[in-house]
């Protein structure tokens, strides 16, 4: 996206920094790391075509202050250096997320719980396991969307 670099501030305090919608989006993605227990996130569009990277799709998120959803991925490292366990984690998570998106919350819960049995520190699985539990407890209609709406900045 477009950014501008320039002086921002008032009469006694100026800062030289980047401003623009994409800077705001990057800040929101950085904050999403706290929610998901991850370290490095990007939009799916940003990493499209970068096949040397191992990425894990984490779903669609409408970030605070944004009108449209953003497909988010976790950057896991270089694909060439990934272990079999790392690749398996990405595959199992993709299946569990597909169950979530298809409103199969019980199956998704089981799959996320299985991931956590092997990778107890996997933040995205913990996040979606809790989300599936909430969704099972409430009634949703046909207008439900798998997009996660976040109000935190």
Could you describe the 3D structure shown?
There is one protein chain. The strands form 2 sheets. The protein has a 4-stranded mixed β-sheet. Strands 1-2 form a two-stranded antiparallel ribbon. Strand 4 and strand 5 (70-78) form a beta hairpin. The protein has 5 helices and 6 strands; from the N terminus they run ββαβαββαααβ. Helix 3 packs antiparallel against helix 4. The protein is of the alpha+beta class. Helices cover 44% and strands 25% of the residues.
The share of residues in helices is 40-55%
Q: Percent of residues in beta strands?
A: 15-25%
**Strand sequence of the main sheet, in spatial order?**
3-5-4-6
Mean pLDDT: 89
Q: Write the element-wise H/E pattern from the N-terminal end onward.
A: EEHEHEEHHHE
Topology readout:
Elements: E1 4-10, E2 13-19, H1 21-36, E3 41-43, H2 44-47, E4 53-62, E5 70-78, H3 84-101, H4 105-118, H5 123-137, E6 148-149
Top keywords for this entry?
153 residues, globular, alpha+beta, 5 helices, 4-stranded mixed beta sheet, two-stranded antiparallel ribbon
